[in-house]
From TrEMBL:
Source species: Lachnotalea glycerini
Cross-referenced Gene3D superfamilies: 3.30.420.40
Protein name: Plasmid segregation actin-type ATPase ParM
Actin-like protein N-terminal domain mapped to chain residues: 48-147
Domain named Actin homologue MreB-like C-terminal: residues: 163-275
Pfam families, sorted: ALP_N (PF17989), MreB-like_C (PF21522)
Domain of life, per lineage: Bacteria
């Protein structure tokens, strides 16, 4: 995605996932490792307030509250750096961040999340991979995830539509009628792709004496032709089919009609639903995991 700028203010959409951090152009794992001393290699190294961190070399454990420490703030800085390099955003630029959170958390967490990212000390200075960065964060705008992923399409939607955002830790369900979200039918459920991945790792270790890595499992989701022994693929196929069945069960149990409504699956689990879920002409998929981040950015620019 090309740079989005208005009156010398740059707009950056960032999706703070429980597994992946996503921007309009970049995706990275959300691991943060504090270091005691300067590392040997500058790759993935953030220097902030005199401290060294390795960023994005693994997945962090899921947090009950993302605002309890500075990890997601540090991840935000690194993703800003990556996006600024790709877009050639200048040193010292003024930026507006577009961010989001699950539907049911939005009303209660939005203000705290904005405050968390909108630090009083501006501009912010740091180094990433031996390059100096300076940004002034002029504003942080928060939007509901799931909604952001389809915001540009809403005006073209007619009749009943169900948007299902299958993320790494939660599932957001948004009912839409003639392009307008029905707030009373917006729901968030904890049904975890991460738990499925952990179960696969445990089962492969138990059955075959070798734990399949998380990166290989994730790769297989998007590329079934990846070189992995068939017995591991069979185990993963069975686990992903059970997960898809559970997602469809959640929809049915909560009164969502998937036969007479259009259904759009988005998020990291959209590919699983496409490959292992029910197939029908009224079901479609947005498989780009950056969809929410791109949506946050577009919405922030419109409101800016």
């Amino acid at each position: 995605m090309r740079d989005t700028i208005s009156n010398d203010i740059y707009y950056l959409g960032i999706d703070h996932g429980n597994h992946l951090m996503k921007g309009a152009n970049h995706i990275m794992e959300n691991g943060v490792e504090a270091l005691e001393t300067k590392p040997t290699f500058s790759a993935n190294t953030l220097v902030y307030n005199g401290h060294f961190y390795k960023i994005g070399e693994s997945r962090m454990n899921v947090k009950d509250n993302k605002l309890d420490d500075d990890d997601y703030y540090l991840l935000t800085l690194v993703l800003m750096a990556k996006e600024s390099i790709t877009r050639e955003i200048p040193y010292g630029a003024h930026v507006v961040l577009g961010v989001g959170m699950p539907l049911k958390q939005f009303a209660t967490v939005r203000k705290q999340f904005v405050k968390y990212l909108m630090r009083e000390r501006q501009p912010v200075h740091f180094r990433y991979e031996d390059q100096a960065f300076e940004f002034t964060i002029d504003n942080v705008m928060a939007f509901p995830q799931c909604y952001a992923a389809v915001a540009e399409q809403l005006s073209n939607m007619s009749g009943e539509c169900l948007i299902v955002d299958v993320g790494s830790w939660t599932i957001d369900i948004m009912s839409v009628r003639n392009g307008v979200p029905i707030e009373s039918k917006c729901e968030t459920f904890t049904e975890s792709m991460i738990s499925v991945i952990q179960d696969i790792k445990s089962r492969t270790s138990e059955l075959y004496g070798k734990e399949l890595s998380e990166s290989k499992i994730t790769e297989y989701i998007h590329n079934p032709n990846v070189t992995i022994p068939d017995k591991y693929k069979k185990l993963m196929d069975e686990a992903f089919k059970r997960f898809a069945d559970r997602v469809e069960g959640i929809l049915k149990e909560n009164g969502h009609d998937t036969e007479f409504s259009d259904v759009i699956y988005v998020g990291g689990g959209a590919t699983i639903m496409k490959n292992y879920g029910k197939q029908s002409n009224n079901i479609s998929y947005i498989e780009d995991v950056r969809a929410n981040a791109i949506g946050y950015e577009l919405l922030a620019r419109k409101m800016g």
